[in-house]
Each structure stands twice: as C-alpha cells, then as structure tokens.
Amino acid sequence: MQRPMKKVPRLRRDHFIDLRPFAVSPAFTRLWIGSTLAGLGGQLTIVAVMLHVYDLTGDTFAVSMVAVAGLVPMIIAGLYGGMLADAFDRRLVALLAAVVTFASTLLLAILAWSQLETVWWLYLLSVVNSAANSIVGATKSAITPRLIPRELLPAAAALQGITVGIMVMAGPALAGVLVAFAGYAWTYTIDVLLMSTLFLGLWTLPSIRPEGAVVKPGLESLRDGLRFLRHAPNIRLQYILDIIAMTFGHPLALFPAIGAVLLGGGAITTGALTASIAVGAFVSSLLSGPVGRVRRHGVGIERAIQVFGAATVLFGAVLAAAALGWFAPPVVDADHANITLIVIAAIVLAVTGAADNVSAIYRSTMMQAAVPDAMRGRLQGIFTVVVAGGPRIGALYAGVLATITALWLPPLLGGFIIVGLVGLLVRLNPRFRLYDAQHPVP
C-alpha cells in the first residue's frame, strides 16, 4: 500500500530548478539523496578500478576491457531487471540488486586491504557491479512515477540531472585524488560507506507492486514489451532520436588524441573537455524551471537534440581551426596548449551537455507518464540497451572516421547529420510534435 502524497505546492514561475518533488514526497527525497551519494561512490569505484587495472598491468587495452567486459552483462541485466520490476514488488527487486552491488564493492575493499586483488578479480567484480546497478536503475525509474504526481515528473527528471552532474563532475576527480593520496583500499571503502545510503532510500519505501496484468519474467515478457514498443510511436521515436544523437555526437573517444596533438595540454585538456559536458548538464538542471512548464515534450526533444547537433558542429569547427593553427602557440603538445580554443571548445561542449540534459528530462518524463505502470520496468530495461549501445557505436564511428580522415571531421559531419536526421524523422512522424504532457500518449 502506498502512503498518500502531500498536496502539490503552487509552481513558482522562475528560472531555477523546481524543488516541489522534495516537498510533496519524503520517500522520493530519501531515494534521491541515497541515489546521489551512492552514484558518486559508484563513480569513485569505476575510476579507481581502471586506475587499479593499469597499475597492475601497465596496459591501456586491459583498462578499456573493463568497460567492454561489462557491456553485455549490463544489457542483459537491464532487460531482465525491467521484467522483474514489472512482475514483483519493485522495492524488493531494487533492494536485492542493491545488496549485490554493495557486496561486490565491499569485496573489492576487502581484497584491496588484504592485498589479494588481481586483474581478474577486478574484472569480475566490475561486471557484477555493473549488472546489479542496471537492475537498480531500471527499477528506480519505474518506481519514481508512483512516488510523485505526474505534473512533477519533469522536475524529478531535472533533479536526476543534478545527480548525474554531481557524479560525473566530482566522481572522477575525487577518485584520482583519493587513489593518489589514500590508496585503492580507502577509495573502495569510501564507496562502501556512500553506497550504504542507497539502502535508506529503498528500505523506507512502501511496497510498490506493478499495476495491471503481470507477466512472468522470461522471453514472453520481453516480447510483450517489444510488442508494446511497436505500437508506441512516440516512445519508439525518442529512442531512435537518442541513438542518432549518441552515435554522431559523442566524440569522447577522440578527447585523448585531441589533448595530445590538436589542442595540446594532454590529460588535463581531456579531463577539462569531459568535465565541461557534465557542467553543462548540471547548470541546465539548476536553471530548469521553464522546462517543467512546457507541454509539447516532442517539440522539446526535437529542439534540444538539434541544439545538441548544432553545438557538435561548432565543436568540430573549433577542432578544424586548431588544425589550421589558429591561436596556437609555437608548439602544441602535452606541455603546450592552445588555451583560447580549449576554452571555446569547453563552452561549446557545455552547450551539448545542457541540450542533452534537457532532452533527457523530456524523454524521461514522456516514458514515465505515457507508458502504463505494468510496462515501465521493461521499457526502462529496453532503454538500457539504447543508453549502453549508443555511445559505444558513437566511439566506433568517431574512431574509424578520425583514423581515415582527421580528428575534426567526425563531430563536424556528425552534428550536421544529427540536425538533418532529427528534423526529417520528426517531420515524418507529426504526432510526435503534437505530444501533450497533459494528455500523454505513448
């Protein structure tokens, strides 16, 4: 049985983030706090494991395999976790998956303190951690619409943008400092402490069972979700648009080479460019007040992704200017940087982060409001495939094209492709532009 929610306070028409979900639902507030702290701890462990593997092997390929090894288990766990969330008490599903995440992190800390860690242990525990987190994520997304009123879902999504911004901005930097000054054992231990806060948010939730027909987890349940998606043009199109954006506008794989040979500054430039995207997402969440007042979420997604594409074009143009030697010092390398173009590139990337976050707010709200409760877990699981696969396809696109042409071409060309394809697909699907948040239709 769900506890009654408090009355929704009147919306203040300003530009700052809407905090009404905190006032309306103490359960949502506890879950958000726990998820934010646990997510920050998770970033500590992700970065620490990569640094740890490099320390043990001295091999960059071995480090890259940390992410590759966890991809398929993460996708499978996300899909199956979504089915579990649509068949059982979502609170219980999330709690059990969180226990697995907690146990894998605790074992990492124990191995590090006892100096018994090996590369294979790091791989195995990273895979387990990633898979369990996929289940937690899919289940929490299905829980949120049961904790707050529908009109506050955009505000809840914006608050999730704050969480992601904190995780991506602070997590990697804090992990580097902790590993350098305290060591791996303390870094993993701090994640264990942060992870424990997630249990506060989950444990205090009421029982949340799916509403409507329940399908036993398995292939038939997955087929049921895919059949629903086939007849849900608005949800299906937002998945496609996200894949397009992540495939052609995700040049993170190029950042190390950009810092080494094009803009200079080496690892510092790579870190600054990566952090700029998170800063944009964070700031756009802080200033997301007007976003919650928009009813045409399909139009919002289209325009946000096209701004994302246009900013990606500008990033490619900045790199092309660097290739032509604009504003460059006599030597560009890891120790000598083109500061002017780095600043411009960081600003442009912040715009991509902000636009992507705005798109994510509308996409998340549309999925949580338009998808029936009995289907939310499975649709979130399918979305896990989109989120996991898009950036990796993007890394392949950027890497191959940059190898045979130039570093600046993948973002420049990709941005134009995003703007054009998104405009074409939305024009071919006019109902997407007509989507009304007050009358959600999948």
Automatic annotation (TrEMBL):
Transmembrane segments: 31-54, 60-80, 92-114, 120-143, 155-179, 185-205, 239-262, 268-287, 307-327, 339-362, 382-402, 408-426
Alphabetical list of Pfam families matching this protein: MFS_3 (PF05977)
Domain Major facilitator superfamily (MFS) profile: 175-442
PANTHER family associated with the record: ENTEROBACTIN EXPORTER ENTS, INTEGRAL MEMBRANE EFFLUX PROTEIN-RELATED
Protein name as it appears in the record: MFS transporter
Organism listed in the record: Microbacterium terricola
Subcellular localization(s) per the UniProt record: Cell inner membrane
Major location category of this protein: membrane
Membrane topology: Multi-pass membrane protein
Lineage of source species: Bacteria, Bacillati, Actinomycetota, Actinomycetes, Micrococcales
Keywords (A to Z) from UniProt: Cell membrane, Membrane, Transmembrane, Transmembrane helix, Transport
Keyword Transmembrane helix carried by entry: yes
InterPro entries in alphabetical order: MFS_dom (IPR020846), MFS_trans_sf (IPR036259), TM_effector (IPR010290)
